[in-house]
Each structure stands twice: as C-alpha cells, then as structure tokens.
Specification:
Helices cover 41% and strands 8% of the residues. It has four helices and four strands.
Length: 119
C-alpha cells in the first residue's frame, strides 16, 4: 500500500502512512519484549513511570543489529540463516536492510545486568 501511494504521487499520504507503519513496527517490538519479560516472570519489577521505563527501567535488554551495541548490520545475515526468515516473507538487501522495510530484528536477553552500551 505504501508503494502504491508513492507511485501515485500521493507523497503526503505516503509519508504519513510510512511514518505510522515504521512506528507501529517499533511499538510491536516493544510489546513483544514486554510479553517475553512477562513469560520469563521478570516483568513485575518493570518501572511504572514512563520516563523510567524509557530509561531501561526493566530487567533485560533488546539489542538490534545496526544500533550502538550491535553496530554491524551484517549480523542480520546470521539471524536470517538461523531463523529462516524466508519462511515468513522476510529478506535482506545487499546492504543488509530488512525487506519489507517495516520489519525489525533483535536479540532479547533477560539477564539482570544486561544494559544498553556502545561498541
């Protein structure tokens, strides 16, 4: 749908829809991270204050290729091989970007000392 809007020259609608879809992808990743913490029995200690939650006020971390803790985007290829992404319609570009664009990948860990960091 996004590409149809772009191809039709509906650039404002395209930008609005694209922005919404990529933000929804990130929100869904946060939702599943929370669900994993619940299933692991560690979500009870999650911060209730939104600002504290955004400052990693929970146990564990979600590391994604291309971000400071995992800057090598080529790691996407390792995940692709391990998880057989093609089975659900995901693929990688030659620059290791996910297709469809409104997709994300991550390593989710539950260790109490897991923190975000820069490499």
């Amino acid at each position: 749908f996004s590409q149809q809007l772009f191809d039709a020259g509906e650039y404002e609608d395209y930008l609005l829809f694209h922005g919404l879809s990529v933000e929804m992808t990130e929100a869904l990743a946060e939702f599943w991270h929370k669900r994993l913490r619940q299933q692991w029995g560690i979500a009870a200690a999650d911060a209730t204050d939104l600002q504290k939650l955004f400052a990693q006020g929970y146990q564990g971390a979600r590391y994604a290729p291309g971000y400071p803790a995992c800057p090598n985007l080529e790691d996407q290829a390792k995940l692709e091989r391990l998880l057989n992404w093609g089975d659900i319609g995901l693929s990688l570009t030659e620059d290791f970007q996910l297709v469809p664009e409104q997709s994300t990948s991550a390593f989710v860990v539950h260790h109490p000392e897991a923190r975000y960091f820069n490499v």
